Amino acid sequence: MGKFSKAKRQRSLSGGASSALEAPGGPPSGDLSAAGDSEGGLPGWLGCLATVLEWTAGIGLMLGCAWGFAWLTNEIHESTLYFSNIKEVEREISLRTEQGLYYSYYKQLVRAPSLRQGLFELVRDNSTEHPDTINVLSRMNIYQEVLLALLYRYTWFGTYLQPIYFYIYSVLFLNGLLICGLFATSWQLTGTPLAGCLAAVMYTLNSMHTTRLSSTHALREHFSLPFLWLQLFCLSVYFSRASVRGSARERVSLLGAQICCFLFTLFWQFNQFVLLLQSLSVLTASAIGFVQFRKAFAFLLTVAGSLLLVSLLQFGNPMLLTAPALSVCLSGALSVAVSRRWLLPGFGSAGRLARLSRVACQAWVCLLAFAVCQTVL
């Protein structure tokens, strides 16, 4: 009997040891809540759910703010001109000053026998500055009218909307994208969609001071500024610390910034002044160490490439080739490359005097390259 109880005691001890080996340091088998808390499953699910809800609510707020701004602007325009109750010729007359000129090119492309014939007439236009023959695509920024005419002719919009309504609704849609860009930029910089909602609401409530959209639809700025705000959003993502080298976040944000910068440059004749300020800001930030050299170099090449490509599309427009923004971008990119290679290695570990001397050298290289670019261009 004593031997039997001793053997039973040994088996129970060996079983306990084996169970301890199977789950070392684990909680008792009956305490499931403790097991879940130790593995972090429930808080992880809650965090994922909170992130999904935040993104869903943020995107919903962004789209709602964009729709609200477009709707409010359209209502102001309608109540001011009774736009839907007047004749088509009166709607066209309501496009005052240069708006009527821009819309006439769009209407000419829509009513041309073919889009190719309409473009040929714009390239050899003898009615705008009669008796001289000019290239309208080179003289003015009307590629947005070309794109809208292309969409109107070859999509189903042409069967449901009159040309002027399609034109105005397209402008309203683009300015809805402006609100989306403003919302997303504020969200990115603050980390909360409430900041984006506040920025969009304040922009809408102060629309009489922030935009002329309710009374002037065909101005170049209404086609261009939406892409400026989208570019700022892409740049805020690109220059953030979360965009590490070679990551998909960095590549996608840079690509978005390049596309938006090109469209912003293409649609507005005053693009060079905004791009000049952006280039000087990024160049200064890179010189004092706030922006990485490789990111500043990529941005400056993006701006320079946009200016050169738009100049090519406008048949060598000299206003863009001789713009100070292009010279600053080319000289700045050269100075950043030289500084990164020879002048500023180990910038972060250098002393204050060494930093100032190296920044002065970079500024000297930039000014020298700027003078050369201005002389050549």
Automatic annotation (TrEMBL):
Q: Which organism is it from?
A: Macrostomum lignano
Please note every region of biased composition (Low complexity): 12-24
Chain spans, region Disordered? 1-35
**What is this protein's record name?**
C-mannosyltransferase DPY19L3
Tell me where it resides: Membrane
**Family recorded in the similarity comment:** Belongs to the dpy-19 family.
Q: Output compositional bias ranges, type Basic residues.
A: 1-11
**PANTHER family documented for this protein:** C-MANNOSYLTRANSFERASE DPY19L3, DPY-19-LIKE 1, LIKE (H. SAPIENS)
Q: What Gene Ontology molecular-function terms does this entry list?
A: mannosyltransferase activity
